[in-house]
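Human: If only I could read backbone structure tokens as easily as an amino acid sequence. Underneath my words sits a plain record pairing an amino acid chain with its backbone structure tokens. Take your time, and here it is.
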Amino acid sequence: METSLRNEIETLPSFLEREIQAFFHRQKERYDYGEMFESVYFDMCEFVGRKGKRIRPLLFALTYRGLGGQKSVTDPAVVSAALSLELLHAFVLVHDDLIDRSEKRRGLPTFHKLVEQRLGRLSNAERTGHGVAVVVGDLLFALSVETLQTAGFSEPHRSAALGKLLAYITDTGVGEIFDILLGSRDIGRVTAQEIERTYLLKTTRYTFEAPSVLGAILAGASSEKQEDMALVMEPLGLAFQIQNDLLEFSHFDSRDQLLPTDLLEGKKTLLVREAYERLGEVDRSFLQMCLQNPARNESSISKVQDLIRKSGAIHAMQERCRLLFGEASAKLAGSHLSASEQESVSQAIGWVRQSVRSS
């Protein structure tokens, strides 16, 4: 990677943080709907601006430059496209927290809880918080689409990128529906293939494929290279999701019932499914009973943790990640990308992988 590009990339995370704040400052006049909306807009700015990994905008900018994009990563057009992906992520998080009834996000109250807290002891505070959060999520979605639509890229690349983004958003919505429906099933009636498909649609498509494919489109890369990026990102996204499950499991504290964790919510993750497959009949029954109990307490969650450790599922999932990363590398090596483009994409993947490990 050339020195100038490396310097751009090294300053990109801090630059993005400043640009998120500047973006909302520029939008403030447009969203001046009076005193009643002022606190909602403030909370929306604060929620999006919370410190995060910024995987999506970073991966987009790195892919765009790595595949021959001529604009610098600090160019307003590139920044707008990158921010559209972060706005999309915020939209997903606001609605996801509502669905999961989560109370914390990035160590602070979820958006619906922010609204509730402002309302204090009003009897309808919870319902109002939920309603406002639904609509704020919709606003963030519209803002995401508009920000990409007005980014300073030439046609037909910009329209192609927007169309692709909307397709990824549809996949994400379907994946969320699958996640909800699987959550109501007994773990014995959920297959690993169903969970993997849910991961692909709900997370991989908008977290990994969308940034890399949009970066390729706006850089003017060929349709073959765009398709190659999607193929590379599919096993990579699954590996990252499994890594996230493992990371969440290793950091889980059953005493903090406010943490938004899959284990507390009884979600059907690949880790839990792998444990179920490996356990004996008695332990399987215990696992099913603990996951089906809506009033999960510290004792039942601790039992689930013990069963997962006992099953050997953790090691199996670690090995699965290793194979998936190898699959992604093989697909990259066999792609239409040039050697220098492959190196840039590989470095971008390494950058994202390191950010996940350090979270």
